[in-house]
Amino acid sequence: MVVATEASEEDGLIRAAAGGDRAAFGELYVRYARMVHGILLARVPPAVAEDLTHDVFIAALTRLRGLRSAAAFRGWLGAIARNRAVDYFREVRQRGGALEDHTEPASAPNSEALFILDAIRSLPEAYRETLLLRLVEGMTGPEIARESGLTPESVRVNLCRGMKMLRQVLGGTA
């Protein structure tokens, strides 16, 4: 019954946002920003992930009226985020420039975090996204399942296998 109530509340928010209610859209941003940021962080330099998160929500706001079903919102928003990451790299190539170096100097306090982020980003996509949503965005397994559309079992498997692969990449024991 609680799940049905949450789904009904979310459907109402999505419909209200599609009708132009900015407060409802703001609530959707609060609920889904971590998911979108995690998806982007799995694909783009960390320094641009936050800006691209905002871009994704602006794109969603302008296209929300065309969404056929409120139930499709999560997957639709995730697809916009993945496409925005692809667009980012296309734009960099079109400008003729190399990717900007968004990393900190090796002596920076967060250099270890960037090293681990690079290790996570070297993993297959399914593990990469799930691990970033868990380890960086702080989402629980059930939250990841609910927001990504994966089954709870798939999330558990992806986290378990992803952590095992991450330990191998980082030189630990599997």
How would you sum up the global shape? globular
Quote the distance from N terminus to C terminus: 41 Å
Helix content: over 70%
Main beta sheet = none
> In sequence order, what are the helices and strands, one letter per element?
HHHHHHHH
Oligomer: single chain
User: What average pLDDT do the residues reach?
Assistant: 87
What are its keywords?
Rna Polymerase Sigma Factor, Chain: A, Arc Repressor Mutant, subunit A, 174 residues, single chain, 2 domains, 8 helices, 0% strand, mainly alpha
Describe the secondary structure blueprint for this structure.
Layout: H1 2-18, H2 22-41, H3 46-63, H4 73-94, H5 111-121, H6 125-135, H7 141-148, H8 152-169
Describe the structure in your own words.
This protein has 174 residues and is mainly alpha-helical. It folds into 2 domains: 1-102, Rna Polymerase Sigma Factor, Chain: A; 103-174, Winged helix-like DNA-binding domain superfamily/Winged helix DNA-binding domain (Arc Repressor Mutant, subunit A, Orthogonal Bundle), CATH 1.10.10.10. Helices cover 72% and strands 0% of the residues. Helix 1 (2-18) crosses helix 2 (22-41) and helix 2 (22-41) runs antiparallel to helix 3 (46-63). The longest helix is centred in the middle third of the chain and has 22 residues, at 73-94. The radius of gyration is 17 Å and the shape is globular. The model is unreliable at 101-107 (pLDDT under 50).
